[in-house]
Every structure is written in structure tokens, then in C-alpha cells.
Amino acid sequence: MLKVTDVDVFIGDIPILHKVSLKIEQGNIVSVVGSNGAGKTTLLRTISGMLRPASGEIVFMEKRINHILPHKRVEMGIVRVPEGRRIFPGMSVLENLEMGSFTKRAKDRREETLEKVYSIFQILPERAQQLAGSLSGGEQQMLAIARALMALPILMMLDEPSLGLSPLLAEHIFQVVSDINKRGTTVLLVEQDVYHSLSMADFGYILENGAVFSGAEGKDLLKDEHIKKAYLGL
Prior knowledge:
Layout: E1 2-11, E2 14-24, E3 29-33, H1 40-48, E4 55-60, E5 63-64, H2 70-76, E6 78-81, H3 93-100, H4 104-107, H5 110-120, H6 137-149, E7 155-159, H7 167-182, E8 186-190, H8 194-199, E9 203-208, E10 211-216, H9 218-223, H10 225-231
Parallel strand pairs: 3-8, 3-9, 6-7, 7-8
Antiparallel strand pairs: 1-2, 1-4, 4-5, 9-10
Helix pairs in contact: 3-6
């Protein structure tokens, strides 16, 4: 579904990603883990079109997308849930969800998709007219994921969805992501919780200092001695 090949990304004159390559098979969960500053968010911003690679190639559904604008990538089915939720706090929950379905493809199926979203996040219909900014942290994260689902993603990219949540709420978010994947959406997950992230992943990549250090099935990476020592404290 997605293939990133030898991508270099600079912010100003500072190199952030160096010769990064990865691929995502349709229907999979792929996790990218690494320390703060490793380039994980930059990778997602580059795939979504917010940053343009200096070199290398990004191919989605057999189409090169290096120069395609971000909103056009959303229309193609690439949807990102950014770090920090980035909901519209002064708008209602329902208005936030409607904002997610701004493309023609999504707008035509808005009511049908809203029904499905409400079946996944059963707290949201109760909060439909409530201001999004008044929700708890966990509810805001659910809303951010639900808003992304309203765009009918083929590939959903999540950036640190458990950040700032209690262990119990984080566990619930991971279950939601797994359920979304089982319903047919391919997932690219960037997550600080290395154990949970790799446990649920079909394939995982370790990003260190802007480069891919390792890539393997998630369960195999969890057995890797370097991963145990560097990221799991074992």
C-alpha cells in the first residue's frame, strides 16, 4: 500500500531524516518506535504532505505522491491523527466530526460513517453537543481518532495516541486502534509505549537519529536485545 524509499528530509538546514525506507502492506498494523527526536513525527508529516522530502520517493497505492498536496492525500485515503489531538476546542463534538468529512467522498457518506463512529466510540453521541475543549483527555483522544475515521481513511497514521493518558485509558486506545484495523483500515502507529506498540504490530521499525536502525515483525523486535535494553529497560 505504501512504500517510502531513501527519503531525506530537512527542516531549514537541519537534516531530520536520512535515507529512510519502509513499506506497509494493506491490512497491517505497522509501528514506528524510537526515542524523542528520532524523527518519528517528521516521518508522518512527510507522508501526509506537510513536509516535502529533499530526495527519495513516497508511493501510495502504486502512485508517486511526493508533490501531491496534503488535502489531496486525504482525498486519496491518507489520514493522520496528530500528536496532542489537535481538536477544535471551541466547536462541539459533532462539529469536530463533521470537519473530518470535508472531502466529497467522505461527505457523501457522512451519516453512514457517523453511525459507525458512534458504534465504536459510544461516549461520543452522549457528548455530541458538548464543546470539544471540555472533554477529558481520553475523550479528546477518542474524538481525534473518530474525526480521522470520518475522512474514510485507507491508511490511518496515529502519532503518540497514548500520550498523557492513564495506563487504563491508554490500554483502551490501543484496543480501539486494533478494532479499527480489524474493520479494514491499515494503520501506521508512532507510539512512545514500545511494548504495546510492537506487541500489536504485524511489522515494526526502529528509528534512531533520523534513520531506520532495524525493521522486523513486531514480536521479533520485542525479543531483540538492543530493543530490550534501549527501550524496554530490560
